[in-house]
Amino acid sequence: MSSSSAPLVLVPSSINIDETFAVPHIVRPGETISSLDLTSRPGGKGANVSAALGLSGVETWFAGNVGSDATWPLDELKKRGVKTDLAGVLEGEKTGRAFIQIGEGDGENSIVLLKGANFPSSSDVTPDSVSSQLPRPPTHLVLQNEVPLSTTASFQSHARKEWQGCVTVWNPSPLPTRDELRSWKWDELDVLIVNQGEAADLIAALSEGEAGGDKEEPEETMRRLSSIESMRQLPWIVMTLGARGVLASINSGGDRILISQPPHKPKQVRDTTGAGDTFAGYLVSSVAMLGGKGLPAEREVVEKCLRRAGVAAAMAVEIKGAMESIPGEERVEQRMKEAGAA
To answer: What secondary structure letter does DSSP report for 71?
Structure first.
């Protein structure tokens, strides 16, 4: 593959410092508990996805901002093969923070965000400025919702209009408001990644139906989501189910194919914080490494992409930390061979 046709993934998104408290259990309303430990690590959904992409072996460019108080998270991205030339250091702003509780017994987490430099008063992270600095147009664009929604929307629209064949992926977490979701340009999107709770909230926001929630069978949640008018033409809808695996609805010639991928069982569960971002990064990487333009619709190819992403996510929960827990490409390939999933 020539350098001019090699995949290039752009992630204009968030970067944080994760202040992680190890606790006996997630604190309840009105309760005060003592933490067992405190660690400071790099994080943020954009940075985590970028790290997963970089470690997976695909060329990745991160575009986001840190404050002048703490720039070291950018160094951590560089160590993982991510290009940070597009990142800004903003004077007078604080680097974003995530205050995370990790339950010692079950590894579940609870997170409070400080937006900081991820929501600056002004920023050079715009589609035009990024385009002028990239060596070639991106083949894949990965978006979340930890930076201003207007920024995310501008990159999505720019990709559709200016970056021919660019595959746009959106993991809208935290979920935007009902009005924001209803006005979103879904026809500019290629891949939607949500968990079941987010899928249920999307259904409630975009239709007159009830949310359903986690108690509803995943297949029914996916059926209701993919049947909403604004969702019908989406090439891929991917719904992560945690320990239950992943479900995907693929648009194949106007018909939707439902693909269920069973979970890959981790050797132990230490911390689930970065699992979703690891999954998203490795899923995009798997698609990007196929070469060509657009998204595959063949069941076997989609299953292989989902499987690789699922194995990487399962490995991420075995180690504490978000970015630090993301496995590299060689380890993922070895685990897939061991599990007979290659």
So the answer is: -
Q: How far is CA 90 from the centre of its chain?
A: 24
Tell me the binding residues for substrate.
16-18, 44-48, 146, 277
Instruction: Identify the bridge partners of residue 256 per DSSP, sorted by sequence position.
Output: 251
Any idea which fold 44-92+121-338 has?
Answer: UDP-N-acetylmuramoyl-L-alanine:D-glutamate ligase (3.40.1190)
Catalytic residue among 85, 179, 190, 277: 277
Please give the pLDDT value at position 106: 82
198 close to 206: Cβ distance less than 8 angstroms:
no
Q: Which residues are annotated as a binding site for ATP?
A: 195, 240-245, 276-277
Question: Model confidence at 109, in pLDDT bands (50, 70, 90)?
Answer: confident
Instruction: Please say if the pLDDT value at position 209 is more than 90.
Output: no
69 is catalytic: no
Dihedrals φ, ψ of 83, to 5°?
A: -85, 125
Q: Where is the binding site, in residues? A: 16-18, 44-48, 146, 195, 240-245, 271, 273, 276-277, 316, 319, 321, 325
Gap between the Cα atoms of 91 and 104, Å rounded: 37
**Interior angle at CA 316, CA 141 and CA 76, nearest 5:** 65
β-sheet bridge partners, residue 67:
90
What are the domain boundaries of the chain? Answer: 44-92+121-338
User: Nearest Cα to 237, choosing from 275, 304, 186, 282?
Assistant: 186
pLDDT at 259 over 60: yes
Check residue 139 and give its pLDDT. 97
- The DSSP call for residue 5 is T
Specify the range with the lowest mean pLDDT, choosing from 126-140, 161-175, 205-219, 327-341.
205-219
pTM listed for this prediction: 0.91
| Model confidence at 215: pLDDT above 80 | no
In the Cβ-directed half-sphere of 275, how many Cα atoms lie within 13 Å? Answer: 29
Share above pLDDT 70 across residues of the chain, in percent, rounded to a whole number? 96
